[in-house]
TrEMBL record:
Residues 96-159 form the FAS1-like dehydratase domain. Residues 1-40 are annotated as: Disordered. This is MaoC family dehydratase N-terminal domain-containing protein. It comes from Rhodoplanes tepidamans. PANTHER family: HYDROXYACYL-THIOESTER DEHYDRATASE TYPE 2, MITOCHONDRIAL. It comes from the Bacteria. Coiled coil: none annotated. SUPFAM superfamilies: Thioesterase/thiol ester dehydrase-isomerase.
């Protein structure tokens, strides 16, 4: 998870010739698939419930897991000798060997068909569906879209599209233009951030990216002003808050997009705004009133 993040990481000493060859062959990776199996064991669910301070989650065998908690499974487990300098698995494998140094989970789109239950044997099919190159303010960017389909013995459970963006390493931290928080949210919740929360979430998702727990690395190498708050953790916190404010509803679809980096030293607030279609727009907001992540949840017609 990258952040629940897919595998692939920073290149070491890639030559200009090798970089050009990689770029020329990127489209050859479109259509590549990968299969994986796992089981929804109860211990990771209990640990995430404790990490989020949610005593009401029942992780007994057969109990349904909250939506997005399937991120606790299908983890990118590789030997220590195959870890790159940023903490991610070395480049190669399923994802293309893009030579840009920085990688982030930019956005995601979800359809929930059936709830994953504790004890379920799960199967996941992953497919690279799109690779697109763009020019941004910081230079060349490459977006890789991966579609994951998670199934249990009952049939499809979750369809997920994950957009991963690759960027050059900046010389200094230059944030994008901020988006202001909504003025009159339907609800607003503060969240206490600390390094322990970031570390525990990294551990639960087997996310070794050092920007989330190694402050000298985050500052000196990737040029961030502090430990970076995971995109998936923000997405999870938002959906959990939305479910608390609509306890009788079930998410049918969920989308999120990171628009501004948030950090472990930030003062975090979760906000929700009702939509005319019955869903909710969701926002993580820092102490300066800048939106970090935008998300939208659409509720199923049936109640829980």
């Amino acid at each position: 998870m990258s952040d629940v993040e897919a595998d692939g990481a920073k290149a070491n000493g890639a030559s200009a010739e090798g970089t050009k060859a990689d770029e020329a062959n990127l489209q050859d990776w479109v259509g590549r698939t990968e299969e994986a199996s796992d089981q929804a064991y109860p211990t990771p669910a209990r640990a995430l419930a404790a990490t989020l301070d949610q005593a009401g989650v029942d992780a007994g065998v057969g109990k349904p897991l909250p939506e997005l908690w399937h991120w606790l499974y299908f983890l990118p487990i590789v030997p220590a000798g195959e870890i790159g300098p940023d903490g991610h698995p070395k480049r190669g494998g399923f994802l293309p060997p893009i030579a840009l140094e920085r990688r982030m989970w930019a956005s995601g789109r979800y359809v929930f068909h059936d709830r994953v239950r504790v004890g379920d044997v799960l199967h996941k099919t992953s497919k690279i569906t799109r690779i697109a190159e763009k020019q941004g303010n910081t230079g060349r960017m490459v977006f890789v879209t991966v579609k994951h389909t998670v199934r249990s013995g009952r049939g499809p459970a979750v369809e997920e599209e994950q957009d991963i963006v690759y960027l050059p390493m900046p010389a200094a931290f230059t944030p994008p233009p901020p988006t202001p928080a909504p003025e009159n949210p339907a609800w607003s919740e503060p969240v206490a951030l600390d390094p322990v929360l970031l570390f525990r979430f990294s551990a639960l998702t087997f996310n070794g990216h050092r920007i989330h727990y190694d402050l000298p690395y985050a500052r000196e190498t990737e040029k961030y002003p502090g430990l970076v708050l995971h995109g998936p953790l923000q997405a999870l916190l938002l959906l959990e808050a939305a479910r608390r404010h609509a306890p009788d509803r079930m998410p049918a679809r969920y989308t999120f997009r990171a628009v501004y980096p948030l950090f472990g030293h930030d003062r975090l607030t979760l906000m929700g705004v009702a939509r005319p279609d019955g869903g909710h727009d969701l926002f993580t907001v820092n102490g300066d009133g800048h939106v970090g992540m935008q998300a939208t949840v659409a509720w199923a017609a049936n109640e829980r």
